[in-house]
Amino acid sequence: MEPGTDAEKCFREKLHSLKRELEQLLTDSAASSRPVDLNLSIGRLSRVDALQQQAMAKANREGHQRRLVLVDAALMALKRGRYGLCRSCEEPITVKRLEARPETPFCLDCQAQREK
Ligand SMILES: [Zn+2]
Q1: Domain extents for the chain?
Q2: Helices (H), the chain
Q3: Superfamily per CATH, domain 6-115
């Protein structure tokens, strides 16, 4: 994507707001993913519940963290004028895909390959 174009500015803004959103989510979820205190005097079932919830919160956080890494990488790519190019085959990623997931590092074909 050409630096200084409207499209580039638009994606830069998208990425920055996504970054803020993810950072907020990580801050908000920091408390809920703390290890469960097994000495807490709660029943066995609610303890299982608490462990499950904690595991889910942890998985969510890891997803957010991974996404944040991709957002940062995409912002770096923008700076270098490489944004929107697939990191694997170097073909341009479709705008439609970038609009859905502005942080994506791969085109649809390469993403599908990797998920196999
Ligand atoms: Zn590709």
Answers
A1: 6-115
A2: 6-29, 44-79, 95-100, 108-115
A3: DksA, coiled-coil domain (1.20.120.910)
